[in-house]
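Researcher: Let's run the pair from yesterday's discussion. Sequence first, then tokens, for each.
Model: Starting with the first of the pair.
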Amino acid sequence: MSIDYSQYQRSSPAPVKKNNLYPLQQRMLLWGFILAIFALLLQDWVVGTAIFALFAFVGASWRSDMPPVLSACIAYQWISACAGYIYFIDVGYFPGGANPGSAAWSLIISLIGFGAIITGYRIGFAVFRKRITSKTMSQPATYSVKRLLWMTIVAFGIQYFFEVAPKQIWFGGAQIVENLLTIRFIPLFVLSVAVFERKKNYTHLVIAALWVIGPQLLTGFAKFKEILLVILIAALVQWRPWVRSAQQTRQNRRTLMFGVIGFFATLVLGLIWSGGLKSQWRDEIWNKDNVTTPVEKLVRFTEITSKVINEFDLSFASEELVGRVSSGELYFSLVVDRVPDVVPNEDGELFKKALLNAVQPRFLFPEKANLGGDSWLVKKYTGLYVAGDESETSVGLGYMAEFYIDFGVTGVIVLCMFWGFVGSVSIAMFARVSPSREIFFALVIVCLTGYFMSFDGSFIKLFAGYVQRMLILTAALFFFGSYIHRWMTADSMRG
């Protein structure tokens, strides 16, 4: 069964004009202004500013010729930066009863940082415009849904084997292998786009999603949000409100409905996971006395899920979920309280650590000191005692807090622009080596969802990880991209 992307190509913007690349800018500014007025009346000016900024960010980052992955990543970070403060305004206290510090000011700084990231991307997109648009406006490929499904199953099967294999057998090359294994998302994304484009073969996508998410649930580390986000982005590729045809209008309504349902479904799953399922399930499977077969684990997971749903407390689950996603916001607010009044600015020391970590990959420098967890950053700059290396725990401070510690607000603006420009450089490199537009989109999604969704991640590790992944994937696609493309095409295997 082959997939014809000609309809997608016809509805893509034909002439590449600068003012056509971001067709949602004005509309999002208008909607953001209207909703900000309501937020200003019902809550306060900080929430109103945050609402307006969110819509402005989406409009300024959603290119008509690319999937809205950057918009999705910024929106996800926006939730992490704003959820705790909004909860504080509505409920009267920060999740967990923590002292939020200078929450309003740290939130405003975060919004400025998001704007700087998008500015960095836009500068890079302008510099590499010809290279990127030559790929985004290229003719779509034709792929086999059945082959994409089997490739997804095989690729994630290899990844599962690597996860259970001792890291010592890779002789210091574990990071290389892990980055190479991110190629497994290519067939998953292309399969998702193919299914939503064709409006059939949804069973293939469901099977692939269950195969990808299921084993992760059995390990206790349910990183399902990245998978669900990839599928949601693939669906949003079909949402083009700037196209006025009757057929596209109907498609926009269906896609918008799917997006809303998908968002609330993810929210419900997050509430259930945070509302007791995570703690009870981890207690069950991490207890060595309860080690069982995968089938027994699946049965036990179903029983615990049923129990959690029956005992579900929405208030408790909401506070747990908001507390989890807003930890970076809390720590940033405490950093703003203490730096530079109590703890002086580092004048670039943290950024220097990030650069050194990036240029000294462990597979080339096996004697490089282990960075350990990130909890020491939280302890030193917030004054809070949190679990650290002594209990094999790492608590993230957040990259914007690190930028602020180095150079204050100026550091947040300049380094966020730098971070965004680095992202645009990787996109240009992927455009150079990708054998098709769909593979290019998949590579962009793999890198951005892996590193630009994290608000509480340490830039010391984020930057090195992103650069390494960018270089490894670029090299892999340069040498093997044509083979991957051939394996995915319908001409290689019809049916």
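Model: Moving on to the second of the pair.
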Amino acid sequence: MRLSRIHIFILIILPVVCLSLIVGCGGEKTTAKLEPLDDATIQSMRNASRLGYAAIEKGDLDSALVQFAEVARLAPSSPNAQYDIACAQAIANHPDEAIAALQKAADKGYSDWQWVNEDPDLIKLRDHADWEALITKMKANFAAQLKDLEGPLPSVSSAGDPVFTDIDTLDAYYNKTFWDTYRRCAVFPGSVKTKLCREITARRLAALQLFSKMHPAVADQYAADMSALHATTQLAGLQQQWIAGRPEAVAIATKIMSSYPDSAGAAEAALWNTKARVAEYVVVHDEIQPDEAARAVSDFIATADKLPDGRWKSEALAEAIVFKSGATPDIEELQPLVDRFLKGGRQRIREIEKGYELNELILRASGPVDFTATDIDGEEWTLDKLRGRVALLDFWATWCGPCVAEIPTLVELTKTYPTDKFIILGISQDSADRTSIDDFRAWMASRNMTWPQIYTGEGWGNQLAKAYTVPAIPFPVLLDADGHVVAAGGGARGEVLKELVKELLEEPS
């Protein structure tokens, strides 16, 4: 299983308390109970998953299935182990077995049908007779889980939680509780995790109401309102479609804009108020509809026009750029918005919620950043040196699982096309204190990575990564022979990358 912008494969930890979860299956609801797991069991799950994927890399299907079966035994209500089994069977060219495993995953509530459609490990299954029915079932799961999040936040009490005398301590307590719960439920569908986190958000809002009653000073009231806004927007970040907590966010943002119009928080509240309004009419589709995208662009530009220069204005412009890309296929139409965003500083891309997608659009609209860098063999590289051939700037690291998952695709490309036609220039985000240059060389050799690599040992301090404002890795940047950015980020990975390179190198008829 590979990483995409909408799905993160990380097996972390599960709850150490008993919880009941409502999981939608084919439009129906079933109750799945999480059994308490101690630290040793959690570690066993992580180890089994790691060993399973290591076995897949070695072509040892039987060993991989044994490890994934162990994950299933340790977390029987989770669909993830069945998904992993499906990937293993698909890679081993056992389509019927892979489909059967995916059906079991769907029965357990698996609902990320978009990722299933994109996962390169499963691409060979798309022609299977049962594929469309399987996707339909996962869509039904997704719809049922979203419906389960509708309505106001639950009415709960924070009576069992501490009483707080300052906002910083309150925020720290509920942030930790929120993210601990999310991480401990990492092997369950996203909407299920969101439902649990929704309850924690409701507890936080109840605690903030109590705090406000106990601290009537204006500064304390403002701090409590901002904390409430952050609680609802934190919840929004877990959702592909913002449903849970949206009405509460609108009410809180409206209060902040009205009660503290000259505060720094008013700009943040204005941005989130617009995001909430857009979420009311932009719904999850295979693609966002052009009329929805155009309306969202208008709303975010109007918001940006009212905000002072700074992060929140940049956020509003970033949202407008991303939605504009959905309204038109012409990248040149983004240029005015891109120019306006860049006036606030290119490095803001790393602060933006949609920075990964935004960076691709800005690079495509404004072009690549020139550079001079020396690889580990002492050879100097510039954009001019790459021109005349299709080139891939690959920002990656040895410790990055999704980066490692991309390596077979890159190796295949280098074997398919000669270096005078296609070249990869790796830019490592490894740190010398974690991966020495000698270890780095050996690591590459073990995976048949023969292309040039820029390694400074500075990790995220790498100047080239800063110049390209890389927000996360892997972040590939594909250039055509004239040095134009064809694609970047998620648009230049896996099967999509192979197709793009093939198109760029095809001889004109």
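Researcher: Give me one sentence on the second I can quote.
Model: The CA atoms of residues 372 and 382 lie 5 Å apart.
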